[in-house]
Write a structure and sequence with these properties.
Helices cover 16% and strands 52% of the residues. By secondary structure, the chain is α+β, with helices and mostly antiparallel strands. The protein has a single domain, classed as Immunoglobulin-like (Sandwich), CATH 2.60.40. Strand 1 and strand 2 form a beta hairpin.
């Protein structure tokens, strides 16, 4: 009985780890890129991920692109006088050892002028451009419209 429970736990952990999608270029790691499904008629979508610099020198995320939109922008959400506002950023520095989380209510990638709606379960092909690490091909997993985190993150928390 004990071995069965341990076996099930290992299988769950292994499958959850296999589902998470991570990318690496030089000292930059991009962990679990995801987006939300878009409501009918939406012209923008948002991309989330975690970016980690495992190296000893800083790098900068300077831009990117996605196949589902005509334009890609980097944004930071800030609170001003109790009002949430987005600011476009030209680049984002990732210091040595630093991890930056692109998440709901914070920094994010904005997909502008969508070419098609994003539906749960879709995959959106994209490229991130770093000053030192260069271009990194990634794929965003599309979650529910109201998702606060990706299903891979939720799956990892449950095991």
């Amino acid at each position: 009985m004990r071995l069965t429970i341990i076996g099930i736990a290992i299988a769950c952990l292994t499958s959850a780890m296999a589902m998470a999608t991570d990318y690496k270029a030089g000292s930059i790691e991009i962990i679990n890129p995801w987006s939300r499904a878009t409501p009918k008629g939406a012209s923008t979508a948002i991309g989330y991920m975690t970016v980690k610099n495992t190296g000893t020198i800083p790098d900068r995320l300077t831009g990117g692109s996605v196949d589902a939109a005509n334009q890609f922008e980097l944004h930071l959400t800030v609170m001003e006088n109790g009002i949430s506002k987005m600011r476009e950023l030209h680049d984002i520095e990732i210091k040595p050892g630093q991890t930056i989380e692109f998440k709901p209510g914070g920094s994010h990638a904005m997909f502008v002028n969508l070419k098609r709606p994003l539906n749960k379960g879709d995959r959106v092909t994209g490229t991130l451009v770093f000053e030192r690490a260069g271009k990194v091909q990634i794929e965003y997993t599309v979650e529910d419209v109201g998702a606060q985190r990706s299903s891979d993150q939720m799956e990892n928390m449950q095991h």
